Amino acid sequence: MNKILVITNGNIGDFVMATSALRLLRQGEQSAEISLITSIKVKPFIEKLNLANAVLYTDFSFARNILRQRAGQILWLIKNYFRLKSANFDTCIFLDHSRFLAKAIALIGIKNLIGPSSWWCGDNIKNPNIKMLTHIVNLPPNSDNLHLSQRYQTIIRNYLNNYNLSMPILPKSDAQDEAVKLLSRSKKYAIAFALRGDNIKGNKKIYPSEYVREIIKNSADIFDADFYFLGTKDSFSDLEQIKDSFPNLSIKNLCGLTKLLDLKPIFEQIDLLISVDTGIIHIAAATDVQIIGLYGANLYNSFPMSHRAIILGVKQPCSPCHYSRTVLKIPCPYGDKPKCLSDIKPPMVIEAVKKQLGDKK
């Protein structure tokens, strides 16, 4: 039996896009024993998707200082080294770009190591792990223009030696009734917002509150709509202030009240999601909901995989800034208010809302 280890240790949105490649691998290697190394954040998805026989979870926080990051990674390796060593994997496929995990796998001694030629971001940046690979998958040098799902699937297709394609998948949910109760729709339309993304290494994916107020006000003048805020509990208080400024509108703040698996049935019940680049938008893209994506720092390679999405972005000289932020550690010159997002003005969003929803009150 072929034993394959796949490393895909990104955030929630990255993992949702990676499910397209993992699905290809499962279909192409039906008799293989497939194991994953992935983030604990995506555990709810893994447990209900038949993509792997075994999973090792990581809990690496990139919000910590570098010493605490390294300590956490080393402790993880000490804990899991013998489990990985004794598994006797035939092949390791790197979808992830982690240099630590690449070094860890080298210590384990897996003979067949497959990975990409280029780094996951930046223009003409060679994969720093390339020397340890036994098989290199050639990808376009400008990774900022290569969608992550295309990157992941290209690596898997190369391994399988086929030309199949796939779309991201979500696990089935039994929470449809709960979603209906939670939303309690009373208007013709349901419009949801996800306006706070992960703050990792200087990437402030926060859409300005004053813009949100203007979009809600103008949308309510045009459409008979219920409005919803989605996100983590950390966003609750800020968005509650926006909600309180519109006492006569139907606005529900659901931040911190939904689990990852609750989101799929919610998107099956609403008409439109307006979101920055965060895991929520990629979960939505795996459903049939209409989407307006507000993209700034992360252009091109992480758009939602949906034909029902409109992407809004205003290109800046410094964007996309994946490589400069994550590798060169150059902070955003605009601090907490990145120009790439603040230049997406409310009238642009309102026009997109009109296109997506069409008819009026």
Could you characterize the architecture of this molecule?
This protein is α/β, with parallel strands linked by helices and 361 residues long. The strands form two sheets. It has a six-stranded parallel β-sheet, with helices on both faces. Strands 9-8-7-10-11-12 form a six-stranded parallel β-sheet, sandwiched between helices. It is globular, with a radius of gyration of 21 Å. Strand 7, helix 7 and strand 8 (225-229) form a beta-alpha-beta unit. It has two domains: 3-160, Rossmann fold (3-Layer(aba) Sandwich); 176-357, Glycogen Phosphorylase B (Rossmann fold, 3-Layer(aba) Sandwich), CATH 3.40.50. Helix content is 37%, strand content 16%. The protein is built from 13 helices and twelve strands. The protein has helices at 12-28, 43-46, 66-86, 99-108, 148-160, 176-183, 209-222, 236-244, 260-267, 279-285, 322-326, 339-342, 346-357; strands at 3-7, 33-39, 54-58, 91-94, 112-116, 135-137, 189-194, 225-229, 251-253, 272-276, 290-294, 309-312. The mean pLDDT is 90.
